[in-house]
Automatic annotation (TrEMBL):
Keyword check for S-adenosyl-L-methionine: no
Highest taxon of the lineage: Bacteria
Subcellular location field: Cytoplasm
Pfam families, per database record: Maf
Species of origin: Allofranklinella schreckenbergeri
Family listed: Belongs to the Maf family. YceF subfamily.
Active site: D78 (proton acceptor)
Protein name: 7-methyl-GTP pyrophosphatase
């Protein structure tokens, strides 16, 4: 057969994130993919709602990587914790994590996890959002300190890892995409990647 007559192979897939949590989740799908770091300023805009921030940043990350890899299908994602309309980002330090968990104690916190799939060559732009409602138990200072020393979740929005010991801080989780709280909603990701032409499974 003439090689020119062969159907084209699937486009390369790139995860526009260096998050180890998102990488581990995407690996579940068994697809080959590369990693690229998006260069995006994650500072919220004045008055920007948590949901809008997550959606904007997910798309910006995907578009930034896609601009450097125009033939690839690029996944961008972002998660913002929402406490009564206020965005809670990654604490980065123990002291900020303590302050976040004190604020979240006994409260309902919504984790907005946005995903964008972009391919410049095929003019593809897809977006979706998963909202996970969590209810935190009333937490005393000793519980907060023990948890943070044990798991050190300083790179997680909301200062807790639900896939680890952080589950002990919660009374309830309500969502329709179980991996969304970890950082990449795989049900939505699969739907979007199929729409982009990839075969899953």
């Amino acid at each position: 057969m003439n090689p020119a007559a062969l159907p084209p192979g699937p486009r390369p897939l790139i995860l526009g994130s260096t998050s180890p949590y998102r990488r581990a989740l995407l690996e579940r799908l068994g697809l080959p993919f590369d990693i690229a770091r998006p260069e995006v300023d994650e500072t919220p805009l004045p008055g920007e709602a948590p949901q809008a921030l997550a959606i904007r940043l997910a798309l910006a990350k995907a578009q930034d990587v896609a601009a450097r890899h125009p033939e690839a299908i690029v996944i961008g994602s972002d998660q913002v914790a929402d406490l009564n309309g206020q965005s809670l980002g990654k604490p980065h330090t123990h002291e900020r994590a303590v302050a976040q968990l004190r604020r979240m104690s006994g409260q309902t916190v919504v984790f907005h996890t946005a995903i964008a799939v972009v391919c410049q060559a095929s003019h593809l732009v897809l977006q979706d959002l998963a909202a996970v409602r969590t209810r935190f138990r009333p937490l005393d200072a000793a519980e907060i300190e023990r948890y943070l020393r044990a798991e050190q979740p300083y790179d997680c929005a909301g200062s807790a890892k639900s896939e680890g010991l952080g589950i002990s801080l919660l009374d309830a989780i309500d969502n329709d995409d179980p991996t969304a709280l970890i950082g990449l909603p795989l049900i939505r990701t699969c739907r979007m990647l199929r729409a982009a032409g990839l075969a899953i499974p």
